[in-house]
Write a structure and sequence with these properties.
The complex is a heterotrimer. Chain A is an all-alpha fold. Chain A is about 70% helix and about 0% strand. The longest helix of chain A is centred in the middle third of the chain and has 32 residues. In chain B, helix 2 packs across helix 3 and helix 2 runs parallel beside helix 4. The longest helix of chain B has 18 residues. Chain C is mainly α. Chain C has a domain of about 170 residues: MetI-like fold (Orthogonal Bundle). Chain C is about 80% helix and about 0% strand. Classes of the chains: A mainly alpha, B alpha+beta, C mainly alpha. Chains in contact: A-B, A-C.
Chain lengths: ~325, ~350, ~260
């Protein structure tokens, strides 16, 4: 049972935050002598602090403490070696894990993370390869149906993504449509569900539009004159694309990658539903750790690790596109 | 200027956009080494014509001939013309050097040749130290020079310029006008320039083509168009004008404001209705009893170079430019030398 | 070449719509089996409306989406106005506060909020789910409204004050009308995000209070009941109608 009691310092911290907030409010009122428009933002600020900052701090708190509230790095050690707690138990009871042949490092957490990263990478790459030409065709001004196609793309996105994922079940199952068709044609059934391929398919299916739209926006915004100038200077259509259109669309590509990679790494619904026993991904792991294993400390540590990774990759991407000009979804 | 060979011919060019006729039966030719300007108000089709020459638009019908070769269907990257676009269209992802070098890189020229030619160009447009800069750190005038350099480095036979000076402030614009003219004469290439600014056209061109509503209104040298406009539109568009309806009594005699005036134009039908054009600077203010017309000064504006006065005489509001001022409400006489009275066919008749 | 392009697009669209089409067709399948067609029937639609779970989930989903959208629109619009009027330092702090939830993965947001509720001994349920929804909706509203504020003439507000308006009046009659498109976009965005949300709702609610997404999740693990197919078909049609009207509206206003 996890420790629900708020430590004394917790109360102090909350009081301090609130006090700080009130002070800023008073300061603002004094500076502007009464109502100023900037005060409109304070309710929002307060809400965000309470519902975003404090929860994150809580994760930090749990990640670095053990069940009794003491500071520890055990949770992270557990990530690295999932057998660690078991080995400690054995040692406490006087056994030697090495002698029992049980001193191997439990790599399940790490390998899950690596697996998630790998799947996310493939999903992002495939989405990019499929999505860029799609966006290109849609943004082509001589293609009159462009606007209609955009709407056609938007519609599935707005449909509940669980339903869309679940819809694949009826196609991929052993008794599903594809296998029934194969049976009809005389082929033997293919195992399409509950494996990595199914999960990957589900991921690509869900995230492809999120790759297409930023790229489409970037391409659409592009001044036609640039490709005209390139052609004027002697570049044929192919060269124009590679030397002008493509590089200028880079912010859109970065935006697309960001919008696909991050959810891909952290998804837990898709592998749960479409995947089998050996396709657990990091999101699954975190959920399971929290809700099934009831271990908030390790769970928080895992969440922290995941956030660090995300921030790291976002930082990398930022390097390539410092202005963050990628097309927005809004 | 000696008659140069014709480099470009546009024959019966028509262009339709969404069932709107943007160009109607355009026929023109461009000579080698000439500075040609397409002049007209917004929407007259001058930019479309330029883009057809550049290859960015296909005419609905008609032919584009370049050096005796039909290039109507030729894509822009094969034509020996280069364009300076209206808002420069510099590549944002390349610095100044690479922007200018673009055409050479496409043609896969060797590195040292590219470096030399780009640096020569930077010198030509006076941007020697700017090679490594990004394009958005440059001012409008600097960007424009990069755009010109980027086009010229490919040694085109014709340079197309689509209102390149529009975004510049007045002083810079005037400087660039002279600069461009000088460049054209120095390089000896044909410039085709598009603008709506008549002063610009008059300053820079060897030949002006005035356009309106997709049709050519008049072709001629600046002086010819200014002195002998063929229609009220051209007269109004190029230079300031007073245009009044009159009647051609007979050759060299026209009647307007109830008075007969001797003029120098002939060839009109007897008693034909005509448009009479007199430039404000050609009207002479004389004593109220000795003028061909008598009138009252209604307003006076100091324009620096001259005074602009509106004088009501003979039932018409005359715009008069003079370096001496006549006070408001004073009675004056107006006279004009026969040579400065221009007779034109009335507006409807000149539409081809 | 053109045919190639159209073919490619067609394939991608087919990929996108195939499962949806199958789902909708299945919803009319009289039988339970997914492979055998046993005749056309509205049976599952009827059962859908008779199922208390689904009806409650629908109620929860729609009401939370509406309430969250309303609340986040008010808070978010006020926030945008406030942020826009701030000097640089506080402004960047606020922007950071806005960007953090947007860069956080859903699962972390959901879990952190869950921890918050448990920590503060608040029982999870409808109310906590609502709070969570408002939390993740508001930044999107703020970010929809801010560009419109920036586009607005910055002196309009002061001009109003100069002409005798009180700040409140100026806010209502000058600023709000100018940013209306952004507010509406933000509200629609918030509504859609809330309608669709799964992960955050999953962690911030109790098993007794389900929205459609969490319901589908629990059903999915047991095997899809055909009523869910009927539900998805209806949702799809509803969405189609909504989107077409929104599209129609925006194309009319831009013309």
């Amino acid at each position: 049972m996890n420790n629900l009691a708020i430590p004394v310092w917790g109360y102090w911290l909350m009081g301090l935050c609130l006090a700080g907030f009130v002070w800023m409010l008073v300061y603002s009122l004094k500076k502007y002598r009464g109502m100023h428009r900037s005060l409109y933002a304070w309710p929002y600020g307060l809400w965000m602090v309470v519902f975003t900052v404090i929860p994150l701090l809580l994760i930090g708190y749990y990640a670095f403490t053990d069940k009794l509230g003491n500071f520890t790095l055990e949770n992270f050690a557990n990530f690295w070696d999932s057998n660690r707690s078991m080995k400690r138990e054995l040692m406490v009871q006087g056994f030697d894990p090495a002698a029992l042949g049980m001193d191997a490092r439990g790599t399940v957490n790490v390998s899950t993370l690596v697996y998630s990263l790998w799947m996310a990478l493939i999903c992002t790459l495939v989405s990019l390869v499929l999505g860029y030409p799609t966006a290109l065709i849609m943004a082509d001004r001589s293609f009159k149906m462009g606007a209609t196609i955009v709407v056609l793309f938007v519609i599935p996105m707005w449909m509940n993504f669980l339903l869309r994922t679940v819809a694949w079940m009826s196609l991929l199952e052993d008794s599903g449509l594809i296998n029934s068709l194969l049976k009809l044609l005389g082929f033997s059934k293919v195992q399409l569900m509950y494996n990595s391929q199914a999960v990957l398919l589900g991921m690509i299916y869900n995230f492809l539009p999120f790759m297409v739209f930023p790229i489409y926006n970037a391409l659409n915004k592009q001044d036609q004159r640039w490709s005209e100038a390139a052609m004027d200077l002697g570049a044929n259509k192919w060269t124009t694309f590679w030397k002008v259109t493509f590089p200028i669309s880079m912010p859109g590509i970065i935006s697309g990658i960001t919008m696909v990679f991050m959810p891909s790494v952290t998804t837990f619904f898709i592998p749960r539903v479409l995947g089998g026993g050996n396709t657990e991904m990091f999101g699954d792991l975190i959920e399971r750790t929290f809700l099934t294993a009831d271990d908030w400390n390790v769970g928080s540590a895992l969440s922290l690790i995941m956030m660090v990774l995300i921030l790291f990759s976002l930082g990398l991407l930022r390097r390539v596109d410092p202005e963050g000009e990628g097309g927005s979804m809004i | 200027m000696q008659e140069q060979p014709r480099l470009i011919n546009l024959e019966h060019i028509n262009k339709e956009y969404d069932s709107v006729e943007v160009l109607r039966d355009i026929n023109l030719y461009v000579r080698k080494n000439e500075f040609l300007t397409l002049l007209g108000p917004s929407g007259c089709g001058k930019t479309t014509t330029l883009r057809i020459i550049g290859g960015f638009e296909r005419p609905t019908s008609g032919k584009v001939i370049f050096d005796n070769q039909d290039i109507t269907d030729m894509p822009p990257y094969k034509r020996r013309v280069n364009t300076v676009f209206q808002k420069y269209a510099l590549f944002p992802h390349l610095n100044v050097f690479e922007n200018i070098a673009f055409g050479l890189r496409v043609a896969k020229r060797p590195k040292d040749e590219v470096a030399k030619r780009v640096n020569d160009m930077l010198e030509l447009v006076n941007l020697q130290e700017y090679g490594k800069r990004s394009v958005d750190s440059l001012s409008g005038g600097q960007q424009q020079r990069v755009a010109i350099a980027r086009a010229l480095i490919n040694e085109p036979e014709v340079l197309l310029l689509d209102e390149p000076l529009g975004a510049l402030d007045l002083k810079l614009r005037k400087e660039m006008q002279l600069e461009l003219k000088r460049m054209q004469q120095h390089l000896g290439i044909t410039f085709i320039f598009v603008t709506h600014d008549q002063e610009e056209a008059l300053t820079m061109s060897d030949t002006i083509i005035v356009m309106k509503d997709g049709r050519i209104q008049q072709i001629g040298t600046p002086k010819h168009i200014y002195d002998e406009p063929k229609s009220a539109f051209v007269a109004n568009f190029v230079g300031e004008s007073n245009i009044i309806q009159g009647r051609m009594i007979r050759d060299e005699l026209v009647n307007f404001c109830g008075v007969n005036f001797t003029c120098v134009d002939f060839g009109f039908a007897k008693n034909a209705s005509v448009d009479v054009l007199i430039r404000p600077e050609d009207i002479v203010i004389v004593g109220e009893d000795v003028g061909q017309l008598t009138g009252t000064v209604r307003s006076v504006l100091f324009k620096g170079v001259h005074y602009e006065m509106i004088i009501e005489a003979g039932g018409f509001m005359w715009k008069v430019h003079s370096t001496t001022m006549q006070p408001e409400d004073s009675l004056v006489g107006l006279s004009v030398v026969p040579f400065n009275i221009h007779i034109m066919h009335p507006m409807e008749e000149t539409a081809p | 070449m053109k045919a190639l392009k159209r073919g490619y697009l067609g394939l991608i669209l087919l990929f996108l719509y195939l499962p949806i089409a199958v789902l909708i067709i299945q919803s009319f399948n009289a039988g339970v089996s997914r492979a055998k067609w046993e005749g056309f029937s509205f049976r599952w639609y009827q059962e859908l409306f008779k199922s208390p779970d689904i009806m409650q989930a629908l109620y929860v989903t729609v009401t939370i989406a509406l309430l969250a959208a309303a609340a986040s629109t008010i808070i978010g619009t006020a926030a945008a106005v406030g942020i826009n009027a701030m000097s640089r330092r506080p402004q960047s702090t606020m922007m950071m506060l806005t960007n953090i939830p947007m860069t956080m993965p859903d699962i972390v947001t959901g879990i952190s909020l869950m921890l918050l509720f448990i920590f503060s001994r608040v029982e999870r349920g409808y109310f906590t789910m609502l709070l969570a929804h408002i939390t993740f909706d508001t930044p999107y509203v703020a970010l929809s409204v801010l560009p419109k504020l920036r586009q607005m003439n910055k002196y309009s507000y002061e001009a109003a004050l100069d002409l005798g308006a009180t700040p409140g009046y100026a806010m209502l009659r000058v600023i709000l009308p100018a940013i209306r498109p952004g507010v509406i976009t933000g509200a629609l965005l918030a509504f859609t995000l809330s309608l669709d949300d799964f992960t955050i709702s999953y962690f911030t609610t109790s098993p007794l209070v389900q929205n459609l997404s969490t319901l589908i999740y629990s059903e999915a693990r047991k095997g899809i009941k055909p009523t869910v197919n009927a539900l998805s078909a209806l949702m799809f049609v509803a969405l189609l109608v909504l989107l077409v009207t929104v599209n129609h509206r925006t194309s009319r206003t831009t013309n």
